């Protein structure tokens, strides 16, 4: 919904940054040709450019069509920035570009947006989220406003579409904070020693119920859907998945060759005592030249903790295997505490995964989980002018009601947003002068949103502006969450 305050509507689309002269942008849906099997030329050129931007091999037509069909299935919208060849011809480098550069239909900037859901832990369930991915800028055309243009135009569309949050994953950590994205979940890379010969052996304190059976990956479509649906519903921080996960878990997608099957893939499924499916795991052997003999887990999705442990117990029981590795594991993993010897479980790396950008404070906070009832005032700075201002947050029976304070709007907020579906303004802040106040940037709110970072930690880091220690303690009791979030999905 749009909120009307002092004849302005909130949230507001940001001002779209211009491109440098000689560049133009276009946004279009990923599309197939009339045969329904091959991607159209524009989508193909976009996909090739994006793969090159991430240093992937030169893809064949068959591989590009496979990638493009997935873009279409996920209803992904592509934003491309192109060089105006007429303008380029007047530049000293124009002739060289025409002679040795890529064709004119190959963009110099790529950007993808599409919609899934984010589990923020609230009672209403996951909320829609605009996901951002495949962001590349040709190194020959940096410092021409390409990234800023693509990002601000994408966020403007997300606001106009009524999205409460946007989310992305990053290759470089120092880029996206300036656009209001904050680190919201982290993941662990782990190594689990399985064999007796390692001196760290694998043994669970108690045997999980049910049975794990080896599975044919190509038959897992229904299991994948139901297992992830249950996992997504119970896991704060989880993001809905794109089609590549479905195809990878059923061996129809090979990251080394998208047009080929992954014939190394193996799978297993946990069957509960009542006969229902509790989850699945996919994995492959790293090869006999690996020492010790190692299994790499590709995906492990469980609807409950017992299934999580049972699938690990199956991996540990595989013949002639002494170690298992996994790239995407929760930072707090029940497996480690379930082991007789917790030292057999080693975290080899920690990394940020999900970055969240709040677009609508009211919608986003009302969809969130809360620890305790109470109230506080939120003073939010948003350099893009989307959702800054003063808000009152009241939590009752675990559900939040958020209202914008008419007297506390941020200055410099762009005007001109449509005024449809407006809501009356909230009372001015003077009506509740005793509330503790949290002052922060929208980037910092993104880091607090899912509960991976605490109010106390971010206060100690100097991220809460002019928030007193007393207010920190009062707000932390309401806002901080008892468990860490987990996102098992890269995009």
Summarize the structure.
This protein has helices spanning 41-53, 61-73, 85-89, 94-100, 146-160, 221-234, 243-249, 305-316, 334-338, 361-366, 442-449, 455-460, 469-479, and strands at 3-5, 8-10, 23-29, 77-83, 109-118, 127-137, 165-168, 182-183, 186-193, 211-215, 266-271, 277-285, 294-302, 323-329, 345-352, 355-358, 374-381, 389-396, 399-404, 437-441. The chain is of the alpha+beta class.
Features:
491 residues; alpha+beta; Aminopeptidase; Nonspecific Lipid-transfer Protein, Chain A; 3 domains; 7-stranded mixed sheet; 13 helices; Acetyltransferase_Eis
Structural description of this entry:
It is a single chain. The chain has 491 residues and is of the alpha+beta class. The protein folds into three domains: 9-183, Gcn5-related N-acetyltransferase (GNAT) (Aminopeptidase, 3-Layer(aba) Sandwich), CATH 3.40.630.30; 186-352, 3-Layer(aba) Sandwich (Aminopeptidase); 360-479, SCP2 sterol-binding domain (Nonspecific Lipid-transfer Protein, Chain A). It is built from 13 helices and 20 strands. The chain has helices spanning 41-53, 61-73, 85-89, 94-100, 146-160, 221-234, 243-249, 305-316, 334-338, 361-366, 442-449, 455-460, 469-479; strands at residues 3-5, 8-10, 23-29, 77-83, 109-118, 127-137, 165-168, 182-183, 186-193, 211-215, 266-271, 277-285, 294-302, 323-329, 345-352, 355-358, 374-381, 389-396, 399-404, 437-441. The strands form four sheets. The chain has a seven-stranded mixed sheet, sandwiched between helices. Strands 10-11-12-13-14-9-15 form a seven-stranded mixed sheet, with helices on both faces. A four-stranded mixed sheet has the order 19-18-17-20. Helix 1 packs across helix 2. The radius of gyration is 25 Å and the shape is globular. The two termini are 28 Å apart. Residues 361-487 form the Enhanced intracellular survival protein domain. One of its GO terms (molecular function) is aminoglycoside N-acetyltransferase activity. Residues 408-434 have a biased composition (Low complexity).
